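Feature request disguised as a bug: please show the residue count (382) next to (2Fe-2S)-binding protein in the output. Example input:
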Amino acid sequence: MFKQTPAPVPADDLAASLAPFGQSRMLPREAYVDPAVFEWEKRNIFAGWHCVGHASDLDGAGAQKAVGAGANGILLVRGEDNQVRAFANVCRHRGHEMLTCGATAKRRGIVCPYHSWSYKLNGELRKAPGFDAADAFDSGQFGLAELRLVDWHGYLFVDPSGSDVDFDLHVAGMEDIIGPYRPEDLTVVARHSYELETNWKVIVENYQECYHCSTIHPELSKISPPTSGENLDLPGDWIGGWMSMIDEAETMSLSGRSGGVAIKGLSEQELRTVMYLVGFPNLLVSLHPDYVMTHLMTPLGVDRTHVECAWAFPKEALDKPDFDPSYAVDFWDLTNRQDWTACESVQRGLSSPHARPGPLAPDEDGVYQFVTRVARAYTGSR
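Example output, currently without the count:
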């Protein structure tokens, strides 16, 4: 991956982004506002490993879901063997989409709505109307194009290019961090969808720092000191760090109290902190003592991004007769909306021809990790 033509951004500005921390600048303005850069990202960054959803989105054999569109269109299917597979969302007859982006279905096979070509759940061609008597027709040549997919702790990652690094390298260093929370065993009980008028990278950069927290997040700052914690130095494609909570708090909520139960097996450190992780490029994972929250980003344009936020809780919390997830959902919906207002304002500001890459504050080392990761991709290296 990332061996194609470098991104259409000024080389001098990229060099400034890659300078040592304390001397570097943000990404070039073009990275956020130029449609040509966005198209490059779709062909390169989003052609490699990226998250396309959660395994629980596909409930039972025959469950199907389409994500992305056009060159990035993917069809997710749970087979009779309970395995989830990913296919290019392209019929092998005339290229019609099997499902439209965001659509779901549940049936014993995969059926193209154009000419009724049908496929088994493993992608093999089952029936091509009109070709039954064609001696030269070899159905084995016309199965759906399968893509690399990994189900990792319940998160589904796809590599449409087929040429990105081994998945183990993509998540290097992450097993010991995410594993104790067992997200694959948690249940998603709430989802919020947001469509933002901002570039996807602005959202990640905002997520990677709490330099802004004392200004726009009074509720969060009351529970988790903005200057607490530190960022991690991870060997793979993930970046992030942790922040601590005040002694009186059990979790991140408006009161600091938990309405659920702690995830079993967590260490004392994990019970007193929140881990904020970026699964490059589009998955944000927040690990709390009693729930796991994710933000799944789908870039829609250079200045538009769809974000689905999901909250997952342990079964023991759901078994409580008075369980109400709003203590977590309401807190983060408020915090999200505060962030979204800021991110959209940043996007409008970057649209000005007078915008220039700014310096990074000493507390923005997490932003530096992300910016340099993107800048290296732009130059054609990892």
